[in-house]
Amino acid sequence: MPTRSHGGLGARLRRGVEPAVLLGPGLLFYAVLVGVPVGLVTGYMFARRGRFGGVEWELSLDNFSRVTDSVYLEVFRESLGLALVATVISLAIGYPTAYAIAKLPPRWRTVALVLVVVPFWTNFLIRVYAWIVLLNSQGVLNDVLVGLGVVDERFTLLYTPGAVVVGLVYSYLPLMILPLYAAIEKIDDELLEASTDLGAGRVRTFLGVQLPLTLPGVVTGSILVFVPSLGNFVVPELLGGGKTVMVGNLIRDQFLKAQDWPFGSVLAMMVVVLLVLLFLGQAWVTRRVEGGARA
Amino acid sequence: MPSRTAGRAAGRAAGRRTGLGWLWLPLGLCALFLYLPILVLVAMSFNGGGSAYRWDGFSFRWYAELARDSDLIEAVVTSLGIATGATAIATVLGTLLAVGLARHTRSKMLEAAAMAPAILPDLVLAIGLLAFFYMAGIPKSALTILLAHAAFGTAFVVAVVRARLAGSDAALEEASRDLGAGGFSTFVLVTLPSIAPAVVAGALLVFTLSLDEFVIAYFTAGPTTETLPITVYAMVRTGVTPEINALATVLVLISVTVVVVAARAVRRTEKS
Amino acid sequence: MTQSTTPGVLLEVREASRSFGHVRALDSVSLTIAENEFFALLGPSGCGKTTLLRSIAGFEHPDSGAILLGGRDLLALPPNKRPVNLMFQSYALFPHLSVASNVAYGLKREKLPKAEVTQRVAEVLDTVGLQTMADRRPAQLSGGQRQRVALARAIVKRPRLLLLDEPLSALDRKVRAEMQLELKRLQHEVGITFVVVTHDQEEAMSMADRIAVLAEGRVQQVASPLELYRHPANLFVADFIGTSNLLAGPSDRERLMVRPEDARLVTPGEGTLSGTVLDTQFQGGTSTVAVEVSTLAKPFLVCEPGATAAVRGTEVGLVWDHSVVVGEGLA
Ligand SMILES: Nc1ncnc2c1ncn2[C@@H]1O[C@H](COP(=O)(O)OP(=O)(O)O)[C@@H](O)[C@H]1O
Ligand SMILES: [Mg+2]
């Protein structure tokens, strides 16, 4: 007589209790401190602004139509532009650097990686502040330029869009270098040798083999620089002197100054949607490059 | 043809030694870009004069000012308290979550959700928490910052510990049960020791992230709560003094120490 | 829950089935294993051997069927309560514990007095010849030594049944041959019933008292090595175990099997079949002659003692002393 058995009641209970003990506290914590807040922001998008902060729960779609206001469109254009420039510059500095680190002997590789992350672990505001000291008209950069006779007069580099870009690149460069390094380091040297063996030159090998294989790293690094750049309000304020307004400043102001939480929520969720779309794109690129090797 | 392989091997060995060639250039420029601002700050912290930019003789004057700045010291104490509490909560919850995910789920969605707070822009989490504490009528204070930091810190611990578990042999836990250990004993005697380096790394990560975190703290701080980054923000906005240079030097020194110690600890545990 | 079983039977698997999606890893498997037996589960990769072993150890649950140990229902017990131990294919030695602590791990879970634990650990390390390695970490051992630690860790618990999943597959050829003998000696010495999983038919034949041949989740035949070799239940078993020549059988669904060592070369015209010598291989003690026969798809192999006199390209006749009829389909 074959018996159907999935273990006794005790065994089944044990199998149910363990996941609850392990997963329960963390998921509950998340539900309250991440799920509810993000849900609230989502809900705010459809509400009316309260007089002193907060919202009136009245269904309204006005917040969405305001986004197309020309004042805001101009801010989006400038933010996207600056974030994009910062990303491209980070990539231009990051790729050769990551490539060089990957080619170092193993001992020095670790040292180089530590050197890349150390600035990242120093206080973010201090790192931004350092550029105030450097770029100021009385600052070191001016001393050098005047001393070398490159320029005749002291001038301020501070409070320009250029200073904002420099600040963003400096803030997020390690986030570009690390995924690039991971992607470059993974490539089997024999693939590049095979390409050369088959008659390709250095440039062809780089464009035809190296770059496509490291594309997932390029995309990941670019997302990690681009999205935080959009949401950053400290760099535009301190290095842009408030003249350059990014999406991040706009969102901050809606919550802490204008007290228009619903509109601020719409702006914030736009950044989230962009982030999700970019990550979907990244997953697609990775799948293309790795050719479903893991599927 | 032996000569060909020998030639290639020799070429490769030579390439290893000197092959970086022009690659030293980006490496050097990048190092300059990353460290020049920091070095200037460190140099300027020993400036005797009252300007943050103009050199006016060597002195430890600003370090003395720093040691006397009671507001700043209070902010450091607050930040350390928040970081300690957030690290404790995030390390426990994150470790349990990572182990639970590894053992009991195959859902990619749930895994992504458990790491999402680390990827979510800090500004979005900050306004969400502001809205949440406002709606729930919870007064903003150091405690609300602590909870907020614990929430995103948990995600970082999950990410680090989960990666370690993915590389470890699932058969170890099965072997433990096979030899008569229950779920709890297995967790304490086998699972924890094997993920210990990742748990320590995760805890260090949360601690330093919390100490440095500005955006969420700025939105969830009470009117009188001042964390270190909030104080620095105020100092930088209201005027640049050499005192910040001295503070910056101390902070850089601390983070260099933490990173080097952490890197060494991880390497040592990996070796054994 | 106690159910009746034949005396002398230790383990009984009754119509156990387990599916993963569309894959039937176990398809109504029934087996009995006797006390003190050295039993082998043999089959190609993916046939369900590991799934069966893990079901007995408790890490896998059959969708239906029963597994009884000494008449007691095993499926009701969690893995840590089953008087059965598994030696993992990867050995699963705890990397953070010394050899002695690895071996003591299971005894400590039984809450035995410290002195007894120390003594039994020392004894079992002695048995597997690792007394001097007690303080080393697994990472400081060779493959063969790790395998011995895994074995010691399992047998020190004195389980009623020891399950070994591909115990020798991670070892190189020379150590493997040594360990085959060692496993057999150990099983004799400790008096524990062994169930060994392997995909290597030579390994199964040389170690086991009885072998169950599995294919596609089903038991094809359970018999002694000799019986499997001489009287395979079907074409799959015949082909999987040893080398065989397959000729047309008495019916469409049956074939005639002749082992190479049962066949001889004779002068052309005198044999049951005739053909041309395609190739000869000298293996030392024996030689193998491949004969091309026009009516057969594959060359007919003949095993001759010593060096063969056959010359490539010459005509020969073939006769044999022993043949068996085997069915074509899987069980
Ligand atoms: N956990 C699992 N999930 C999905 N399929 C599995 C799982 N375990 C085993 N299988 C499938 O069941 C079949 C039998 O596997 P296994 O018992 O490991 O075979 P063997 O040990 O004989 O090589 C294989 O087709 C395998 O892919
Ligand atoms: Mg297997």
Automatic annotation (TrEMBL), chain A:
How does the record classify its membrane topology? Multi-pass membrane protein
What Pfam families would the database entry show?
BPD_transp_1
What does the entry list under GO cellular component? plasma membrane
**Principal localisation:** membrane
What the entry lists under SUPFAM superfamilies is as follows: MetI-like (SSF161098)
Gene3D superfamilies xrefs: MetI-like
Q: Which UniProt keywords apply?
A: Cell membrane, Membrane, Transmembrane, Transmembrane helix, Transport
Q: InterPro entries recorded for this chain? A: MetI-like, MetI-like_sf
Q: Which ranges carry the ABC transmembrane type-1 domain?
A: 76-284
Q: Which PROSITE patterns does the record cross-reference, listed alphabetically?
A: ABC_TM1
Span-the-membrane segments of this chain are: 21-47, 80-101, 113-135, 155-184, 205-227, 263-285
Give the record's GO biological process terms. transmembrane transport
Q: Where in the cell is it found?
A: Cell membrane
Stated family: Belongs to the binding-protein-dependent transport system permease family. CysTW subfamily.
What this protein is called in its record is Spermidine/putrescine transport system permease protein
Q: Which organism is it from?
A: Nocardioides psychrotolerans
From TrEMBL, chain B:
Source species, domain of life:
Bacteria
Q: Which residues form the ABC transmembrane type-1 domain?
A: 76-262
**Topological category with respect to the lipid bilayer:** Multi-pass membrane protein
Enumerate the Pfam families for this protein. BPD_transp_1
Give UniProt keywords alphabetically: Cell membrane, Membrane, Transmembrane, Transmembrane helix, Transport
- Set out the biological process GO terms recorded for this chain's protein: transmembrane transport
Which GO CC terms are listed, alphabetically?
plasma membrane
Location(s), subcellular: Cell membrane
Transmembrane annotation, as ranges: 21-46, 80-102, 114-136, 142-163, 184-209, 244-266
Leader peptide range in chain numbering: none
Q: Which family does it belong to?
A: Belongs to the binding-protein-dependent transport system permease family. CysTW subfamily.
Q: What PANTHER family does the record point to? A: PUTRESCINE TRANSPORT SYSTEM PERMEASE PROTEIN POTI
Recorded protein name is Spermidine/putrescine transport system permease protein
Automatic annotation (TrEMBL), chain C:
The ABC transporter domain covers 11-241
> What keyword terms does UniProt attach to this protein?
ATP-binding, Nucleotide-binding, Transport
Q: Which GO terms describe its cellular component?
A: ATP-binding cassette (ABC) transporter complex
Q: Origin, by domain of life?
A: Bacteria
> Which GO MF term does the entry hold, naming one?
transmembrane transporter activity
**Any single Pfam family the record assigns to this protein:** TOBE_2
Xref: SUPFAM superfamilies = MOP-like, P-loop containing nucleoside triphosphate hydrolases
Q: What is this protein called?
A: Spermidine/putrescine transport system ATP-binding protein/putrescine transport system ATP-binding protein
Q: Which organism is it from?
A: Nocardioides psychrotolerans
